[in-house]
Amino acid sequence: MSHFSDTNHHHRSSKSKMALAPPLTAARTLAPLVLFLLSGSVICWRPWPNTRPNSTDFLYGGSKKYEGSSEFVHLKYHMGPVLTANITVYPIWYGTWQSSQKRIIRAFIGSISAVDSKPPSVAGWWKTIQLYTDQTGNNISQNVLVGEEKNDRFYSHGKSLTRLSVQSVIKSAVTSTTRPLPINPKSGVYLLLTSSDVYVQDFCNNVCGFHYFTFPSIVGYTLPYAWVGNSAKFCPGVCAYPFAVPDYIPAKAVKPPNGDVGVDGMISVIAHEIAELSTNPLVNAWYAGQDPIFPVEIADLCEGIYGTGGGGSYTGQMMTGRDGATFNMNGIRRRFLVQWVWNHLLNYCTGPNALDQ
Q1: Cα–Cα distance between 307 and 238 in angstroms, integer?
Q2: Exposed e or buried b for every residue in 271-304, given b needs 16+ CB within 10 A?
Q3: Residue 260 near residue 100 (C-beta atoms within 8 A)
Q4: Mapped to the 3 state alphabet, what secondary structure does the chain carry?
Q5: Which of 23, 151, 187, 320 is 20 to 30 A removed from 282 (C-alpha atoms)?
Q6: How far apart are CA 348 and CA 335, in angstroms?
Q7: 336: exposed, middle or buried (C-beta count within 10 Å: 0-12, 13-18, 19+)?
Q8: Which residues of the chain have a pLDDT value below 70?
Q9: What is the pTM of this model?
């Protein structure tokens, strides 16, 4: 942990905590707050290295039907803004990326608004996120676009980043003397993607990605951002599960739909972060729990659930293509495996491939 986490997060007043809180994680170990919210049910599961119950618990433990826990979930709107204008995602490619890898990620982001995609589709998944509104009743935008991109091939901030230096990378992207990224605090999502040889603080231990907003003291602006790392070298069995599995789990990995374990694993984390940035960009909109420093957001509630019956360590029912690849939704000329999100009107996790729709 950096001095940022140890010093600022634990020893500041509650007001300062809000300003300096560490970013929200895409997957986290169960905190007491989460256990209280869900009365003991497993709401997020990844095969973290420091969690090794009996092997059969991984396959059969926990509730197979997550909806049974819905009565304990109290997702509330805290009156903050959500992204109701056309959303523009600005990818920042940090490190070494192959053009084929970039195409997979661009195709996923572009698929969010591709309403003509074959069902079940990524656009159908996004319809659940569109149900969320701001205090004026405006819904989250249907339109999610890939905006300008920035490459940092020379690892300008090194190959080991802290949570604060992640913001410095974003600052470099928006203040560059050559083709800086636009400043778009109202509807921009700044997506920092680190290549497989870059380590980010807490990566693999209990984090596969996180989102927050930039501090004006560092970046000059308050911009919603997310970081997602390629786990192919460090921990594919954790952050690219189920395309890779750790040695201690008695299960076989499934075939990734786009042929890249690390990047196919990133897709669901990217989806998770974009969903939460859209519904909670400044950490004062949609989340469960009383403490905005430890919120449980719409994707956290469904972590690890990809199909009907999902819950505990069971992914739910997915689909297998003719080529043997596993996926649960279609996009623009590609297939993806994307976790479900919480539907606050139905009060349970859902996705376009649900069997009971």
Answers
A1: 19
A2: bbbbbbbbbbbbbebbbbbeebebbbbbbbbbbb
A3: yes
A4: CCHHHHHHHHHCCHHHHHHHCCCEECCCCCCHHHHHHHCCCCCCCCCCCCCCCCHHHHHHCCCCCHHHHHHHCCEEECCCCCCCCCEEEEEEEECCCCHHHHHHHHHHHHHCCCCCCCCCEHHHHHHHHHCCECCCCCECCCCEEECCCEEECCCCCCCEECHHHHHHHHHHHHHCCCCCCCCCCCCEEEEEEECCCCEECCECCCECEEEEECCHHHHCCCCEEEEEECCCCCCHHHHCCCCCCCCCCCCCCCECCCCCHHHHHHHHHHHHHHHHHHHCCCCCCEEECCCCCCCECCCHHHCCCCCCCCECCECCCCEECCCCEEECEECCCCEECCCCEEECCCCEEECCCCCCC
A5: 151
A6: 24
A7: buried
A8: 1-44, 51-72
A9: 0.86
Q: Which pair of tokens denotes residue 319? A: 């689909």
